Amino acid sequence: MIVHDSSDILLESAKMLNYAGWKTVCNSLFIVFAVVFIITRLVIFPFWIIHCTWVYPVYHYPPFFGYYFFNVMLAVLQLLHIFWAYLILQMVAKFFSSKLDGDDRSDQEECDGSDEDDEGLKNGAGSIKNLGVNRHHSH
What we know:
Elements: H1 2-19, H2 23-55, H3 57-60, H4 65-96, H5 108-111, H6 114-122
C-alpha cells in the first residue's frame, strides 16, 4: 500500500508539471522514465532476475510445482513488459517526430468529463420525453 501511495504522488507531480505548462521538464522526465523502464524491465529483469530463478534453484532443490508456476508467471510478466515497452517506445517515437497531439500519456477521461454526459444524452437517458417509457417500475 505504501508503494502505491508514493507512486500516486509522483503521478500527480508529473500531471502538475504538464498542467503548469512545463512541457520541457515533463517531456524530459518521460524520456528518463522510458530509459529506466527499458533498462530495468528488458535487461535487468530477464537476464538477472529470471535467470536466477530459472537456473540456480535446481542446483539446490528438485523442481516442483511452485518452481514451474513461479517461473511461468515471471515469463508472463516479461511478456507484459515487452508490450508496455512497445507502447512507451511508440510514445517516444511520436515525441521525436513531433506528432504528439496533446498529451497521449494521460487519461482522457480526466480532461473530458463531458463525454459521459453526452453519451447519456445520445442514448436518450437525459431527455424528458423518454422518462415515462419504462412503465415496469413501481413507485
